[in-house]
Design goal:
Shape: globular
Radius of gyration: 16 Å
Distance between the termini: 52 Å
Helix content: 10-25%
Order of helices and strands: EHEEEEEHEHEEHEE
Structural class: alpha+beta
């Protein structure tokens, strides 16, 4: 078995919260905590390819917003259908902290390591040359871990909108 260089996770990249109303949540974070501005994107089968849920091809959709707090990206996610792990989380727990995204030294090696240790992929996809993967680490980390593989030609697309608008 190929064991990745330890530590497996080398940096915290993102903290994500699942919400039932994206616009209400953005407003709350901005007005109460001064967190923002938020860049809004829609992820669905038109914007994301290679979508999987529990290692099986499956389309899902969500609307999300992103901003930075220092060096960490903060993400709010509203599921738009009943297929995703975000919807499952919202139904079971209500709005709340969903996952933490981590940097890794080698994406493929990390995914293989987790698979060989019985930890599969909960959900994933390819968005604008950024491969994102949620690992089923709840039983071993008490949280879902997300990792990325970002191609060298990745660029952030223009958001659909920014909140608050300028």
């Amino acid at each position: 078995m190929n064991t990745p260089k330890l530590p497996i996770f080398t940096n915290v990249l993102q903290v994500a919260v699942v919400v039932d109303d994206l616009y209400k949540a953005m407003k709350h974070y901005y007005e109460i905590y001064g967190i923002g501005p938020w860049k809004v994107y829609t992820f669905n089968s038109s914007t994301v390819s290679d979508m999987v849920i529990r290692d099986k091809s499956s389309n899902y959709s969500m609307k999300l917003s992103l901003c930075n707090i220092g060096n960490v990206q903060w993400e709010l996610i509203q599921p738009l259908d009943e297929k995703s792990i975000y919807y499952e989380f919202l139904k079971e727990h209500g709005p709340g902290l969903h996952h933490v995204a981590f940097a890794v030294n080698d994406y493929d090696e990390t995914v293989n390591y987790f698979r060989q240790n019985g930890i599969g992929v909960l959900q994933g996809g390819l968005w604008n040359n950024l491969q994102y993967t949620y690992l089923d680490t709840q039983s071993t980390m008490s949280a879902i871990a997300e990792i990325y593989q970002i191609s060298k030609d990745f660029t952030w697309p223009e958001p659909e909108e920014v909140y608050p608008s300028k």
